Amino acid sequence: MILPKPVILIIHQTRQAAAYASVLEKTGAKVHAATSFEEANELLSFLSPDLVLLAAHLPDGDGRLYCQQIRATLLHPRPVLVLLHEGDDVNERIKSFRFGADDVLADPIDKNELAIRILAHLRRRQEELSNRLTQLPGPSVIRRMLEQCLVSERPWAALSVDLNNLRVYNDTYGDIAGDQLIKALGAILCDTASDNDFVGHVQSDDFLMIVDLESAEAKADSICRKFDAISKRFYPPEDLARGYLVAAGRGGIARRVPLISIAIGIVSSATTSSTRRFPSYVDVLTASDDFRLAAKTRSGSSWVCDYMLTPEQIHSCDYRSRILVVEPDGAMACLLEENLALEGYVVQVTNSADDALDIARSQPHPDLILLESNLADRQMDGWNLCRTLKEDQDLREIWVVMATAHPDQSLALEAGADLYLPKPFDIPSLLKELSVLLRNEFAKR
Asked: What is the residue extent of each domain of the chain?
């Protein structure tokens, strides 16, 4: 089973950065270099590195303070921070740890020692980002794997896998028994995976598997057969003979629930040899979830794939999310537009509430509006625009994220905003919050 390549950011002067990069690239990592902390800030906003290797002192600042800044601004999972410190002063090295470094190494350092230490940190980070129940890669690693697949020439397919009726099973036999079922499903996926496949654990009973395109259907069939064969061991004989469980609802209402099974939704990198449909990892997840929901409408363990559709049906599907940015600050508007476009979203930008309202009313509607409260319009500010959107029957389902420097979050929520995001914010945090809302948007559809 393969894993995504780790990403390392080196912050050092040009010659040293190049020397260390040549060593670390041989470990299989994707290495990026910055020669100043200002340049590093730009890279951090979209690289999401696994590890940052930085000099303690550069002409434009103190590496120890930069470690402190990263810890304060980047949310989990933040990168491992390895500081390169000149000299042998033990007290200075201890001080570096107090500033937030995870490790302090000599500068310069032996190449072999550097590689071994960095690999040890990356191994530890991999363990921390794995699901505790199954020990499979978690959401952050899944995102990295999908991002690498999206720029790869290798044809691939993503299988979204989960259990049907797990809640009723847990209610009947307990969460510990349910956990054993989840572990069994994870083991089946790993057993089915080849050396070039990837298996990740999104959450609860939700898994994602990435396989070669031509093997997707056969592996989906194999997973269903293996699970159906093993799942019988997780029921007492009397319930297995009866063939169903009883779910009790409110008011004493009871209903029959089929025995547990699995549903698989499959999406592919290309519906033809030349067409890719997924500009963002979010779109892969949401699309595969949609097909998994279609599989749940069938009885027993089943799978549904996107290439069951005709070419006309496929080309009529657009999984790209549409975002409208309403921002009066030109520099901030450009930054947001660039970063959102890199994530694969369709982005429109305006600084006017009136223009924003016209765009929102046009077809197709935006899926989400990122809104600054302090607009230049005299008749309508961001608060009023938010209220207007939420009072409109045709527009009220659009997600509204109020990104504002105003300290009172209650104002934004009372105006109808779905999310209050205080300024200043870091771009990775914003992208994470938007992806959560937009995944819910696809679920609503």
From this structure: 7-128, 139-315, 322-444
Continuous H helices in 343-426: 353-361, 382-391, 409-414
**Spatial separation of the C-alpha atoms in residues 238 and 105, rounded to whole Å:** 63
- Domains 7-128 and 139-315 alike in fold: no
Q: How far apart are CA 396 and CA 63, in angstroms?
A: 47
The CATH label, of 3.40.50.2300, 3.30.930.10, 3.30.160.250, 3.20.20.370, for the domain at 7-128 is: 3.40.50.2300
Q: Which residues pair with 305 in a beta bridge?
A: 266
pLDDT of 253 reads 45
- Give the C-alpha distances (Å, rounded to integers) separating 128 from 86, 135, 160: 30, 9, 23
pLDDT attached to residue 243 = 86
Question: What's the CA gap between 206 and 27, in Å, rounded?
Answer: 31
Count the residues in the chain. Answer: 445
Fold classification of 139-315 is Alpha-Beta Plaits (3.30.70)
In this structure, whether the domain defined by 322-444 belongs to CATH 3.40.1010.20 is answered with no
7/418 Cα distance (integer angstroms): 33
Give the start-end residues of each E strand in 313-397. Answer: 322-326, 346-350, 368-371
Determine the Cα–Cα distance for residues 40 and 25; give it in Å rounded to an integer. 19
DSSP 352: -
pTM score: 0.66
Q: Please, what sign has the CA dihedral across residues 369, 370, 374, 376?
A: negative
pLDDT < 70: residue spans in the chain: 75, 248-255, 270-277, 307-319, 376-379, 407-410, 412, 439-445
Contacts of 201 (CB under 8 A, 6+ apart): 130, 131, 133, 134, 136, 137, 138, 186, 207
The first and second tokens of residue 438, run together, are 């937009």
Q: Which 8-state DSSP code applies to residue 214? A: G
Could you report the per-residue pLDDT of 92-114, keeping only the tens digit for each? 888 889 988 999 999 999 999 99
Phi-psi sector, 6: left (phi>0), alpha (psi -120 to 50), beta: beta
**Cβ(156)–Cβ(213) under 8 Å?**
yes
